[in-house]
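JOB MANIFEST
job_type = single_chain_structure
chain_count = 1
residues = 461
[input]
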Amino acid sequence: MKRSKIKDIFSSGQAGGDVLVQGWVKTRRTSKSVTFIQITDGSTLQDLQIVVDESNPGHEQAAGLTTGCSVSVEGMLVDSPGQGQKYEVQAKTLEVLGGSDPETYPLQKKRHSPEFLREIAHLRPRTNTFGAMARIRNSMAYAIHSFYQERGFQFIQTPIITASDAEGAGSMFQVTTLDLNDPPKNGNVVNHEEDFFGKPAFLTVSGQLEAEIFALALSDVYTFGPTFRAENSNTSRHLAEFWMVEPEVAFCQLDGLTELAEDFLKHLCGHVLDKCPEDMEFFNKWYDNTTIATLKGIANADFERITYTEAVDLLQKSGEKFEFPVTWGIDLQSEHERYLTETKIQKPVIVTDYPKGIKAFYMRMNDDGETVRAMDVLVPRIGEIIGGSQREERRDVLATRMTEAGMSHDAYSWYLDLRSYGTVPHAGFGLGFERTVQFVTGVPNIRDVIPFPRTPKNAEF
């Protein structure tokens, strides 16, 4: 008999017939001559009740089950007379697949703190929170691919190991096969020619530069993969390893990019609300009771568009006392971004045309010589969720910007070449997957929206 998933059982709309269900025991109670077992298989938040009466050969075994045991049950699916559950299975056979020591099993029928669950990351997917988190991550990943695939974008797998620092910030993890206790040297300098790649190599911080190569041949591409930042940031919003979505579009200027970003974010919010209502209700109840309303607001809103200069003017005239004072040229902080989206404009905002001094070298210079064609999408509760720009397609201007940033023209000769052979206006942005999941669910710490968080001094599992 084929195994039935609990989610499919509850969505089938009818009882009757034999089913095979397999899963893990959440609770068990024995009343007189009947044992009631609640099992889950991870396909849904809902548990399925298994009823084993004393005439069943497996009743004695069922009466001894403890939390965490795995079982395989064949039986009749019937309408449940109990409250709070639609169906139950009257067991005909029950097989214990794996026992669970009740003395040492760390998950009990109570709420555990996020800090405790991070210490047992191999078991926390069995909790309601992380089961729901995994299902939402899965649904959002599907929505990302479907959005771009339906629009004719090509999915490009950019390198995880790279010699390029896309951000020019230097916060990269180095990859080496050299003996760190005794590396080969030329004088006092490490001889990287003896290393595996013959040059310094790093874990990527972004797939953007490589995506530009394919955008300037295939027009519309996107990447979706792991990226790494060696920043010693022990905050609720930072990870050393996280996933990024980065579309890159040829023949596109800033206005077209803002339209793509707005459509993309609306698609993600609408998809999660449509496909994960049960899990979203869970997070709305237990973590942030505004999350569903916020997502509905984004899915149905027309995003506001203002320039950075206009944003600074609004903030300076607000009368608010911000922790970080607002002057033209600063990088906007979360408190500024949240004020704009939650208090002043009260909907998502796309801020464009930032000062060149706070943005990356590859962003297209405006005619004023002071600002670049950058854009950030700001949403309530967290502020920036998408950052991007029109890229600098003019070789001479790009070369000047690279020199100002102290970047080697030789090391990035291929990037300059793209501006010499059929250059076109092009643009792209990045969306941090974990920060988006954090925003969608309302979970306060980013460590709790990724299966195995990588943070300073922590690389378990």
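[summary]
The longest strand covers residues 18-31.
The chain has two domains: 6-98, 125-169+205-448.
exit_status = 0
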